[in-house]
Amino acid sequence: MSIASEAPDNAFFIGLMSGTSLDGVDGILTSLSGKQFAAYLPFPDDLKQALMALQAPGENEIHREALAANQVAQLYAACVHALLQQAGIPASAVKAIGAHGQTIRHLPASGYTRQINNPALLAELTGIDVVADFRSRDVAAGGQGAPLVPAFHQACFGSVTETRVVVNIGGISNISILKADGTVSGFDTGPGNMLMDGWIHQHLGRDFDEDGQWAATGTVVPALLAAFMAEPFLQLPPPKSTGRDLFHTQWLANILASQPALAPQDVQATLTAFTALCISDAISHYAAETAAVYVCGGGVRNTQLMTLLQQALPMPVSSTETLGVAPGEVEALAFAWLAARFCDRLPGNLPAVTGARGPRILGALYPA
Ligand SMILES: Nc1ncnc2c1ncn2[C@@H]1O[C@H](COP(=O)(O)OP(=O)(O)OP(=O)(O)O)[C@@H](O)[C@H]1O
Ligand SMILES: [Mg+2]
Known about the structure:
Blueprint: E1 12-17, E2 24-31, E3 36-42, H1 45-53, H2 61-87, E4 94-99, E5 102-107, E6 112-116, H3 119-126, E7 130-132, H4 136-140, H5 150-157, E8 164-169, E9 172-178, E10 184-191, H6 194-204, H7 213-216, H8 222-229, H9 249-257, H10 264-286, E11 292-296, H11 303-312, E12 317-319, H12 330-343, H13 351-354, E13 364-366
Parallel strand pairs: 1-4, 4-7, 8-11, 11-12
Antiparallel strand pairs: 1-2, 2-3, 5-6, 7-13, 8-9, 9-10
Helix pairs in contact: 2-3, 6-10, 8-10, 10-11
The protein binds adenosine-5'-triphosphate and magnesium ion.
């Protein structure tokens, strides 16, 4: 996948994405000519814990946020250096880095969303122009600031002959509905891996349920699934977006408190079914005519989840690999694309998706 931009053919862009799963940073280095390199650096445990703690109000947040932002920037810079080394190119060959930052609050209804990073430090450590803070302008224009990837999904995966749906299953899941006439819609469907990750961590100390194997040993509990599905967010019409602000550990604890005692693997099976059902319901309701569903994000690797998703939908469900893009690379690629859009001073948001008053150029520049 190459990036449409007015930059010269040999210009590279870097996209850095660290999502709500809090697993680490995915980096992509890509050029107009289609050359592409990928790197992934996991968050060290102390940074993961610091970021997790910042998801909720707490003492001395400003100081803790600043320190965590510096650490995020340092990890981002290490990812950039790994990409440059792989590609064998100097920093000067890269036109810009699109750095998402780490979401610690997403409250568009209160007028803000916060992705922490220290873009000034990142520019200092890499010697490359950094474009950061992609979501705030859309929120300032009355939008959700999310999801931002549908425009890229359209550019990358759209078809002129059929409707396609792209689903990103990160911490949260979001869908992009790409119609043959070029119309794009999209929204957050609800949880992705986030609740499953939290539950297995609580019970088995693991970061995630590898291939959905633990969930596969359990049985879906219909009453619990119904209680999950009663979450009002799921009934809201788009535009809508969500995050850890809603689907946090306490959200799950509150619902479980209203249920009889359940085997932990049955809860995991039900959480997996819940994620699949939120996605399949959204597709059935808003894109029943879609010819095919393409999935990206870490959730693709949860075989149990992918099986449930296919069972719930009549059209074929596969990973974006089917269309030639590795599912783990799509979101980082989107931020390289958004950086290129910024450099060309072109809008990155889709008002039909985010609810913003109009198209806006997204991001703020920190020159090298
Ligand atoms: N082998 C696997 N089996 C099951 N789940 C996996 C596997 N590998 C990764 N995952 C899941 O994918 C998650 C990471 O996915 P990803 O990086 O796409 O999410 P994210 O960081 O929240 O991204 P974004 O916000 O951009 O969507 C992990 O937290 C885990 O839940
Ligand atoms: Mg991730």
